[in-house]
Every structure is written in C-alpha cells, then in structure tokens.
Q: What sequence folds into this?
C-alpha cells in the first residue's frame, strides 16, 4: 500500500485552520504536525502549498438506485461521482427494486458495494407496514448498519409507513438510529385535489403548493412526538421549512441529542423562484419552497438546530424529468408535456457537487471552511457514531479531500460523472476545485483522474 506525505497545507479540522504537514501510512493518518520530514522511501510526497485539507465528506442520504433502477445510476457510477466531489463515505437508501425490506436484501447491497464502490458505504434497512419484526433483526447489526429508514410520507412508490402498531414497535424497540422522510400524506392529497379543481394543468411551480410547509411540519411534529414517547434515536431528513426549525433544539451538544436534523444542499441553494428557470429539474420531495425557508435553513445551520448537511442525491434520466438535450447539448423541456407536474420524477443528482456548492457559499462569505467541515464531516460522524472517520486525527482512517480555492470549475456535460448525465447546476461557475481525494489512505482522485482499483470499506459504528 502506498503511503503519502502531504506538505505545506492548511488543515481544516475541529474548528481551526492550521498550517502543517500530514503523513498517511497503512491507510491511516499517522502524523499531523507543523513539519514532517520524509524518512521512508516508500512515501510519495504531495506539495499542498496554497491548498486546504478537509476531512472527506460523509453524505448520510443518497439514492444510488442499485439494484433494480440501474438505468438511472449504479453504486459504481455514483460512488465515482462522489469521490470526484470529495465525498468519501455515503449512506444509501432502501427504495431500490426490490426494496431492502429483508436482511438478505440488505446484505445483497453490501455485497455489490464491496465489489464496485470507490467510496466507503453503508445502507439503511427499509421499513414497510408489515416488516417490523424483520426490521428489528437489524438490532443484531447495530455496529454494521447506519440506521433504519421510514417514509412517513410516500415519496417513492408504496413505501409509506402509516400503520400505528408498526411505528410503535419500531420506535420502541430499535437500537439503531431511525431516519425519517416526513411529509403528511393526507395534507398532500388534499392540496393536490384542490389544485386540480382550480387549474387545468399543473406545472413544476405547483409542487411546493402540493407538498407545502404544513405537510412537512405536521409530519415532523408527529414523528418527534412518537420518538419522545419511546426515547428513540430519531434523525429527520431534508428539513425544508422555516416552521419545522422550532421543533429542534440547540441547547445541548450534538452527541447528547436524541433528535437530530439534516438539511440538504438544494434546499440551501434553490428557492421556488428557480422553477421558472429549471422547472422539473429541481422537482424533489420535500419540495424546494419560498425564499424565506432557505434563509431560515441557513440560520438553522449556524444556530445548530440543523446538525448535518447532505444531498439526498436522487438521479433520474432527463427523459424521466421531462427534458432532453438538443443538438447543441443544451437541456430543454420535452415537447411531449414534460413540464406537467405529475409527469416528472422527483429528485435531483448532487453528490459530485455538494462540497463545491458549499465552497461557492464560502467564497461569498456565507459559511466558513471550519463550519463546512463540521456540518459535512464531523457532525455526520458524531450523529451516526461512525468509528474512526470524519475528523483529521492521528489513528483515524485517512479519508481526506484537498481543495484549491483559486481554481474554478464550471459544471458541464463533459465533466459530470453521474450516470444520468445531467445536473441542475450545469453552467454554474464553482470558484474552487477538489484536486485530491483519499479514501482509506488510497489516492482515488487526483486532478481529474480516477484510480478505480482500490475499493471503499463498509462503515463501522461505535454504538
């Protein structure tokens, strides 16, 4: 195994930026110091002058579509995009085909990842209305599985869990973190029927009216009430509204919280005003909403009501979104009615550009590098109790990303690595670049070139 000495870097870690060197040996961080001299010929030296070293991003919510939906994405293709963007570990959702509703199906995904994933990985156990006993078998793997996923609203297919006895049993007996998608199905249906009577045709701009603030708030409130009743470890995904923030606390350190919250990069970047420009390219569940919500979510990051930043990376083909590329390569709406709200699939691809997007906001003075490392790495590791990752500490696995703040990158068809081949950020100039990504000490991405022989590892949890 190759060892590396990264010299002359600005190390971003645990609320500080320090100048120094870092030695990677046998896959782990061997030494972090102000100056390290190479004494071993089996060490490759990398000059990091002018660059910043951050812990690799850990994305706690992605959809990599394998098995069953591999025309959209695979664990291999999306993990490749992830490492190009500085994401060294991911946690993937159960809504594949078939859904991961049994321990055997869950382990099938781990097997695929062990053979093809370039990043480290974990997979959520899926929940249906009638598999509570099977879900609770995951207690035996509490140090090997990131968590249990419950769709409190039917974002995808028939995955809605609304059986009170199922919910009570899982919330009362699970020894793992329970991650929830919170939208109230009854409110969504009422909103949809009301709009159908008022309008001849629904468009992407109607999506936040259908899946509105109240649908999110009521579902999150109900879920938190169940979790408090049983003292469960609850993590609510993709908070998208100002109103929901009042449900979360910032009065204790993250490690002491029983109820935590995630925000996604698209809810921090887009608002309802962007539907006019991008239409169903930014259709997702929960919906991107009015600008006041985005402003409140940014405040939630800084006052620690929102604990982690993730992507909810959810690729679909352009055709499924109601678009195609013209002869010039430009993404335009399909003439077959792709603009209709009900016709387009919900979700957007983001994992290659999440860190770069936050670095864009850093360039605007909106967020510090230290806060980016906290919310995208440190806090994710703490929230999920991931063992020996998420920090730049001696003895920890060397999951690291080197960035150049003076090297801009334009998001373009030619450099998008998602299998679906498009991004809602196309043509955006990102004012920083990921130059190197290390996974378990292996240099897997360097100045646009990928090394695909080292595979990622299964994440381990210290619970």
A:
């Amino acid at each position: 195994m190759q060892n590396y000495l990264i010299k002359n870097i600005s190390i971003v870690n645990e609320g500080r930026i320090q100048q120094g060197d870092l030695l990677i040996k046998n896959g782990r961080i061997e030494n972090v110091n102000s100056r390290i001299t190479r004494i071993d010929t089996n060490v490759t030296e990398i000059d990091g002058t002018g660059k910043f070293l951050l812990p690799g991003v850990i994305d706690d919510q992605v959809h990599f579509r394998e098995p069953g939906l591999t025309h959209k994405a695979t664990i291999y293709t999306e993990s490749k995009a992830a490492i190009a963007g500085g994401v060294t570990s991911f946690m993937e959702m159960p809504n594949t085909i078939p859904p991961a509703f049994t321990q055997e199906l869950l382990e099938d995904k781990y097997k695929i990842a062990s053979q093809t994933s370039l990043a480290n990985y974990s997979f959520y156990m899926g929940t249906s209305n009638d598999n509570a006993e099977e879900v609770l078998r995951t207690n035996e793997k509490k140090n090997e599985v990131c968590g249990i996923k419950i769709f409190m609203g039917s974002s995808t297919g028939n995955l809605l869990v609304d059986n009170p006895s199922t919910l009570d049993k899982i919330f009362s007996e699970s020894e793992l973190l329970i991650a929830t998608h919170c939208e109230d199905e009854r409110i969504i249906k009422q909103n949809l029927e009301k709009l159908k009577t008022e309008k001849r045709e629904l468009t992407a701009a109607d999506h936040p009216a259908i899946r509105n603030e109240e649908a999110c708030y009521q579902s999150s409130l109900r879920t938190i009430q169940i979790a408090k009743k049983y003292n469960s470890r609850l993590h609510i995904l993709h908070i998208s509204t100002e109103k929901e923030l009042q449900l979360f606390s910032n009065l204790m350190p993250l490690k002491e919280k029983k109820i935590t919250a995630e925000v996604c990069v698209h809810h921090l970047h887009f608002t309802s005003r962007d539907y006019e420009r991008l239409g169903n390219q930014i259709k997702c569940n929960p919906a991107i909403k009015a600008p006041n919500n985005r402003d409140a979510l940014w405040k939630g990051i800084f006052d620690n009501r929102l604990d982690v930043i993730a992507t909810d990376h959810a690729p679909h083909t352009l055709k499924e979104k109601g678009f195609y590329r013209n002869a010039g390569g430009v993404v335009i709406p399909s003439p077959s009615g792709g603009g209709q709200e009900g016709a387009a699939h919900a979700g957007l691809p983001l994992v290659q550009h999440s860190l770069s997007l936050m670095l864009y906001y850093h360039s605007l003075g909106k967020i510090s590098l230290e806060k980016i490392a906290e919310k995208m790495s440190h806090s994710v590791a703490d929230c999920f109790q991931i063992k020996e990752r998420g920090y730049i500490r001696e003895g920890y696995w060397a999951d690291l990303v080197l960035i150049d703040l003076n090297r801009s990158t334009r998001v373009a068809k030619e450099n998008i690595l998602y299998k679906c081949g498009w991004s809602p950020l196309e043509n955006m100039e990102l004012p920083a670049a990921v130059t190197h990504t290390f996974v378990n000490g292996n240099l897997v991405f360097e100045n646009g070139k990928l090394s695909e022989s080292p595979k990622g590892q299964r994440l381990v949890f210290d619970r």
Observations:
- The first strand starts at residue 3 and ends at 13.
- The domain at 56-384 is CATH 3.20.20.140 (TIM Barrel).
- The first helix runs from residue 75 to 84.
